[in-house]
Amino acid sequence: MGRNVVVTGGGTGIGLSVARRFAEAGDQVTIVGRRRDVLVEAAERLGPSVRPLSCDLADADAVAALVGELPGRIDVLVNSAGSRESRAGAGPHAVLARWRGDFERNVLTAVLLTESVRDRLAQGGGRVVTISSIAAVRGAGSYGASKAALHAWNHFLAAQLGPSGITANVVAPGTVAGTEFFGDRLNEVELVRRAGRTLVGRVGEPEDVSAAVFFLASAEAGYITGEILHCNGGELLGR
Fold first, then answer.
1. Does 143 participate in catalysis according to the annotation?
2. Among 22, 103, 143, 214, which one carries the catalytic annotation?
3. Is pTM, for the whole model, over 0.85?
4. CATH class assigned to 4-231
């Protein structure tokens, strides 16, 4: 019998790759995100073990309604939903919108759902894995600060869940191609430049990150909690 897995942001990019990895392992996967059409298309591609549910995870009322649709026992929760606030500007209103937007999209989307399903996480073996970013440790304005907040929250979460045998960890990717995050900014020139900053000579792919998530969700990783797994090909160290 497969595990019950919930993946937020599971319609595209890293989240989609994570959902595929668990589905191929025989698990029952629920993918959650804001765009129902994207989720439905992803579920159709991934197979009958994947169920799409649309929800604005930064909206407390929407999350409360979503919880009623989720499995009664959740073996693995992967918080992959997140994005960068695109609004720019130097005035106080623009700054507020940018910082609030990044906090809502990257912190609240993880915290609201995780706290809402804590009593459903499988005792003695549940796993929570949250996707952060290299920006959390290199610094990147409001986006980096919001991702760094996930690191502090994860330390708290691991302490709270540990007595129940549930682990909580973070995967912090570097540059990952094949996602919507960069839009058209990750052109060939930029790919080459970013690959040159790594120690392995290439940028990441979604499958690199989903492999790390899958490991942290495994039984073999049961003694690892409260940790941040940097998945960046050495980009953090640079050249």
1. yes
2. 143
3. yes
4. alpha beta
